[in-house]
Amino acid sequence: QVQLVETGGGLVQPRGSLRLTCSASGSTSGYHGMAWFRQGPGQEREFVAAIRWSGGSAGNTYYADSVKGRASISRDRAKGTIYLKMNNLKLEDTGVYYCAAGRPITSSLATVRGYTSWGQGTQVTVSP
Predict the structure, then answer these.
(1) DSSP codes joined into one string, 53-105
(2) What residues pair up with 23 in beta bridges, in sequence order?
(3) Per residue in 77-128, pLDDT tens?
(4) Cα separation of 106 and 23, whole Å?
(5) Which end of the chain is more exposed for a tag (fewer CB within 10 A), N or C?
């Protein structure tokens, strides 16, 4: 099974920017989608963004309403890597950001159950 490793988290000021990286070790050819989720303190894990990894809709991107216009997910298939760039960060963006990979169908793209492989997460703290 693929191992996913997230990097790039840290402390960021409000209205700042960051870029997270998720690197997959092993073959990703069996995956249909990769995504970012986050989990704030005392909250459930929530969808942030996803990108189709393979198939006819490869490269299509999807975003949670809370980050639409501020986030950009991209991929480098040759490197088995996805990125999440976020701008204009808000306090409520604080949380542990997780990378996920799987074979989600359209209806499960934004759900935890749509993914079978998860990284350990990277902490993002937005604070003055």
Answers:
(1) -SSTTTT-EEE-TTTTTTEEEEEETTTTEEEEEE-S--GGG-EEEEEEEE---
(2) 5, 81
(3) 999 999 999 999 999 999 999 999 999 988 899 999 999 999 999 999 999 9
(4) 23
(5) C
